[in-house]
Here is the input.
Amino acid sequence: MSTKNNIVIVGAGVSGLTTAYLLSKDASNSITIVSKHMPGDYDIEYCSPWAGANYLPTGKAGTNHAKWERETWPVLKELVETQPDAGIHFQDTVVYNRQKDRMSQTGAWFAGLTEKDPGYKDVVPNFQKVPDDQLSPGVDNASTFTSVCINTAVYLPWLVGQCRKNGVVLKRAVFKHIAEAANAHHSGKKADLVVNCTGLSSKKLGGVNDDKLHPYRGQVVVVRNDPGAMVSISGTDDAEDELVYMMTRAAGGGTVIGGSYQKDQWDPLPDPNLAVRIMKRAIALRPQLVSKGRGIEGLDIIRHGVGLRPVRDGGPRIEIDKIDGVSVVHNYGHGGFGYQASYGCAMEAVKLVAEALQRRDSAKL
Here is the structure.
C-alpha cells in the first residue's frame, strides 16, 4: 500500500489556495492548509481579499513573470466559461499610456502592460490598438482587449470549496518559525514537506526572514457605479506612487477604483485625501462612471479599503529550501500580480514539490 505525501501549506491567500488546489488533484497528496487569516477575513496583513482582482499583464516579454501570466490566462478563461460559481467574468478593457510616466515608479510597474506592441497581445482575446486620432491629448498610445475581473469575496471561498472536495483540511494557527509548520499536519504525523505561501509575512517569519520583501500600500474605493469597462492608465499627475484604474467585479461585487503603490507604507487606515483624489481621477478618465455633469458626489460608495502588496526585490520566490531539516517550497512575493500569475506560479511550485519529494524518496533508498 502506497503511503500518502503529507504536505502542509502555510497561507490561505490566492497563492496558498491555488497551490493547494493543484496539489490536491493528486490523490497521493494529503494536504493541510494552516493560516492566520482565511477567506472571509479582512485584515491589513491579508492581501488577497483587497485585490481588484483582474488580468492586466505587467510582465515584460521573455521574463518568468510574463511566462506565469501567460500560463494563468487559459485557466482563468476556462473558469469563466465553465465555472460560474467561481465569481469571474469577462470584461472589455482599455489601457492608456502616457510616455511621460515611463520613468516614474508606477510607469515602471506598468511598463509591460502599456507598451505599444505588448507581449501579451497574442494571449488575450480581441486585442486592438486604439487609432492615434482617437487618443485624448497627453495619451501616447492605448489598446483594448477582453480580460477578466475576479470577485475575490466569491473566488477565494470557491477555491476553498475545490480544496475541500479534494480532501484538504484547513486550520488556523500562527507560527514564529516556518519549521514549526511541519508539525501541523492534520494526520498528527510530521509533514514530508511545507509550502510557504505567507506573502508579506515571510519578511518576519523565522527561518525565512526575507529582507527583499516590501509592502506596497494600495488604497481603493469600492462603489456601486459601473464604468462599463475595465480601465487603467500608466500614471497620474498627483504623485508618482498613485494610480488610476477601475474594474467591476463579477456577481454583484461592485466596482473597485484605485489606487496607490506606496512603498514601505504600512498604514492600515484609508487616507481620506487620497480617497478624494482616487475618485476624481477615475471620473476624469471615465466620465460615464457617474451621471452626466456629476462629480464625486455621484459615486455610491460601498467601502474604502487598504491592502499591502507583497512586492519582492527581484520578483517572487519560487524555489526549494531546507530549513532546520524541513523541506520547504517557497511561493511568495507576487506583488500586485498574485491573481493574474496565480496558476503559472502554482504550477511551478507543484513541480518543485514533486522534485523535493523525489529527493526525499531517493535519499531513503
User: Anything to note?
Assistant: The domain at 5-360 is CATH 3.30.9.10 (D-Amino Acid Oxidase; Chain A, domain 2). Residues 248 and 255 are 4 Å apart (CA to CA). Helices lie at 14-24, 64-82, 105-109, 111-114, 152-165, 272-285, 342-364.
